[in-house]
Amino acid sequence: MRYIILAAIALIIILTLYFSSARKKEAKREEAPAFREWGLSDLEKGGVLTILGIDYMVDQICLYVSGNAEWFEAKLLGDENEVRWMTWESDDDEEVSLTIEIDFNDTGTTPHLLEQFADEGVGETEYEGALYRLSEASEATFHETKNSSGRTLYYWDFSDDSGKTLGIILWESRAYNAFAGEYVSARQVEVLRPGAGENEDSV
Questions:
Q1: pLDDT at 19
Q2: Residue 160 contacts by C-beta under 8 Å, 6 or more apart in sequence?
Q3: What is the pTM of this model?
Q4: Which residues, 6+ apart, have CB-to-CB distance to 81 below 8 Å?
Q5: Residue partners of 38: CB distance under 8 A and separation at least 6
Q6: H or E segment to which residue 24 belongs
Q7: Residue in 96, 102, 74 with CA at minimum distance from that of residue 177
């Protein structure tokens, strides 16, 4: 009889410890913050993202401001230091622009034509056999980092019927930069790590 009583007491102790441990684990799960998927606005230098299955590291993030509008541009480094530029306005964008830098002389246009396009608000040029139409031409302020002082520039954005893009920038120094690429669905861009100090298990 005594052994039965001792066994019953031991069973009660074991069950008490089990349910106490289960309650503690459940409480920890409830207290733990929910995992938050990173967006483009979380990106900083040193971040890592994948686009169309290709991984890139963020080398720089720039800010452009034009009137009430602002957009961001990330300099991305791929394999063998391949450089691409990704542009977006906010995490709500359905598409982002992914480009490479090209020679201005290959854009099929000239400084004189660009001035004409800006004055008239329309224009077109041919690049690599495709016809690109002007979608926007305006002045903007360029910030090398989000908090740095700005530099004035003028830009022309073109696109063709297939979703490819062509962009030209004129700096105050009268130097031109040109970029060609395409629009990519934002769903095909995944932020793996927002910055150099973050890891994939962070919340």
A1: 47
A2: 130, 131, 132, 133, 166
A3: 0.76
A4: none
A5: 191, 193, 194
A6: helix 2-31
A7: 102
